[in-house]
Amino acid sequence: MCLAVPGKVLEIQGDDPLIRTARVSFAGVVKQVSLTCTPEASVGDYVLVHVGVAISIVDQKEAEETYAYLKQMGELDGLEPGPAGGGAP
What we know:
Layout: E1 5-13, E2 21-26, E3 29-34, E4 46-50, E5 53-58, H1 60-72
Antiparallel strand pairs: 1-2, 1-4, 2-3, 4-5
């Protein structure tokens, strides 16, 4: 099954909407993500990410609910935060 996981945009790199990327935190695990499909995303936004691409912007409540559902389903097993820790997205 393919799932989109919510994360919080921490930092954005680049100005060109076709190649802009962001550092996104998934419960403390930070990954580089393409913003090609979400050019309006900004720092502090929550985005749904599928295979390294932010596919939509969601509000914080929706991100937290989605993350909780994925955790209950066991879909986040193996997604462990680093030493800095972190809770929900």
